[in-house]
Amino acid sequence: MTELTELLSELVRVPSVGGTPAEAGIQAMLAEWMRETGLEVDLWELPLERLTADPAFPGMEVPRERAYGLVGRLPGTGGGRSLMFNGHVDVVPPGDLAAWTDDPFSGRVEQGRVYGRGACDMKGGLVAALLAVKQLRQARLRGDVLVACVVGEEDGGLGTYGLLDRGWRADACVIPEPTGLAVVPANAGALTFRLRVTGQSTHAARRTGGVSAVEKFLPVFAALRELEAARNRDVDPLMHAWDLPYALEIGTVHAGDWSSSVPGELVAEGRYGVALDESPARAKAALEAAVAAACAADPWLAAHPVTVEWWGGQFAPARNPDPALTEALAAATGTEPARWGAPYGSDLRLLAAAGIPAVQYGPGDIDLAHAPDEYVPVDEVAQVSATLVRLATTHCG
């Protein structure tokens, strides 16, 4: 597994946090690897201004001056079905460095694991796909095999949106996100929102003369918790693996500008789970109604209602539209893999909306993604790569 661990460690050592120069730089590195491997390579600069202006653009949470798309193509001999492997190269920031055992981008190999930010989510899966395509060069398949390296998955789906805009398509797609070797044919959705709570500022020593925006946020927060509970009482059987399939969480709260003042405004941002088969518009309406009801029950908020803004990544829920692909992937594992719907959004919904059947299957535990000391087991990466080879052999002919 020397080639596997060396390539994975090399990619993890690239700090390709979304929106940073390294997110663009890793694409050039991967393009060179593809050329050396003998793939046809399409590396292009994404037209950010045009894409982000499109009403259907899925959202973006970090600024980008440049971003690149990348596809490697192993051409078939003709007459077979095509297969795409789609993996994102962007990673989330490492967070508190003190929580890590060593450098978050060390790419350390220890006890059969590769450590570092992005090892699990999802450079391990990407390496599995890259090595699968490399092995398939000897197979002389009839259908094309594509490996798409995309950016911006973590904050909306820019890369896959740009991939489809470029005109790339396939008859089926596997996304090697970390699923712990489970087959995942569906994703919940996730919407990013912002709340603005108005108070009335004054000196803290005379706080009764003002209105604390923090205090007025509390009934709104309670209403959101009640909404979350109601939305998780009766869920699709695919989501029974999770205690809270459609989570609603406030991730950031900012209020006031001085310690001895009553805060006159609070801004809270959060993430809101969308149920399978639920439209984002319906989900938004439910949250807006819950906020409005909380405001109506409070005299101050009734006169100064909380505003709701929808911004950043907007992930619709999605299902794989072709059960045959799910069955073929499960068969290719050579086992009886677990099957469930993921409680988070992914690029699956963009591919499915474009008419491309897509399923997630990859190495690593999703609980390790975005966490300190993130890692992926090397043997799982190898296992996924072998499964992708078997699937391509049967699917592409």
From TrEMBL:
What metabolic or biological pathway is this protein involved in?
A: Amino-acid biosynthesis; L-lysine biosynthesis via DAP pathway; LL-2,6-diaminopimelate from (S)-tetrahydrodipicolinate (succinylase route): step 3/3
Annotated source species: Catellatospora bangladeshensis
| Reactions mediated catalytically | N-succinyl-(2S,6S)-2,6-diaminopimelate + H2O = (2S,6S)-2,6-diaminopimelate + succinate
- One Gene Ontology biological process: lysine biosynthetic process via diaminopimelate
Q: Mention one GO molecular function.
A: metal ion binding
Pfam families per UniProt: M20_dimer, Peptidase_M20
Q: In this protein, which residues make up the domain named Peptidase M20 dimerisation?
A: 187-296
Q: Which family is annotated?
A: Belongs to the peptidase M20A family.
- List the protein's name: Probable succinyl-diaminopimelate desuccinylase
Obligatory cofactor(s): Zn(2+); Co(2+)
Task: Give the record's keywords alphabetically.
Answer: Cobalt, Hydrolase, Metal-binding, Zinc
Taxonomically, the superkingdom here is Bacteria
The enzyme's first-digit EC class, named in words, is hydrolase
Q: What is its EC number?
A: 3.5.1.18
